[in-house]
Amino acid sequence: MSDRKYLIAANWKMNPAPQGALAKDSPYRTLSSVDVWVFPTYLDLQPCIEAGLITGAQLGSSAANGAHTGDVSMTMLTELKCRSVLCGHSERRHGRHETNEEVIAQTIAALEAGLHPIVCVGETLKQREAGEEKEVVRKQLEGLPVESRIIIAYEPVWAIGTGKTATPAQAQEMHASIRGLLPKDVRDSTRILYGGSVKPDNAPELLKQKDIDGALVGGASLKPDEFRAIVEAAIG
Ligand code: 13P
């Protein structure tokens, strides 16, 4: 994995922070050897930040301010002391019809506000069965600024919350393809995370792959013991 530091990110989605998450011995605390970040709902951002967790939002607006009912701007997230924000999670792309252009606009807004965006990409089962997965992901990354603060998460839609994981070989192949698309200046330094049913039993093999630099964890991140085991897999 070259000298890229592993990042294990917990996406709690629309769930409360797991019990004990803010405690001193919480598995959600970042470590010197592995970066650990959490993505709670907006309501839990401030408590997580105040407890000293490295925290990001699950969504931020591409707009700077104004008449956008329900939205939160990237600058507001920075002012709250968020480190990061998810852009283009598949539940937003597919459930909320966010387009590739909108996701790129969010990413640019996040960078301008000083955040470290995690840009999520990934194909549906139908697209994979049609052999279109690399082209789909290439289009999702089109227009991405050249910026070392960007992190990419490859999350095949068919593996999210389904218990089906991409095999380590499938994931590595896509990660290598994504890395190949990145401009030379940031190709080796950009962290590319895998997401989609990451669990304690499959994490070690996935994390061993050359171009997998961490994980974006959904379901298992709600269970402190499982999450701790995934972080330990990254410690090695
Ligand atoms: P699961 O780990 O529950 O499959 O969710 C993955 C995900 O969507 C992380 O963002």
Describe the fold and architecture.
- The protein is an alpha/beta fold.
- It has a single domain, classed as TIM Barrel, CATH 3.20.20.70.
- Helices cover 35% and strands 15% of the residues.
- The protein contains ten helices and eight strands.
- Strands 1-2-3-4-5-6-7-8 form an eight-stranded parallel beta barrel, surrounded by six helices.
- Helix 6 crosses helix 7 (168-181).
- The longest helix is centred in the last third of the chain and has 14 residues, at 168-181.
- The two termini are 12 Å apart.
- The model has no long low-confidence stretch (mean pLDDT 97).
- Bound molecules: 1,3-dihydroxyacetonephosphate (13P).
- The site of 1,3-dihydroxyacetonephosphate has 14 residues, from strand 8.
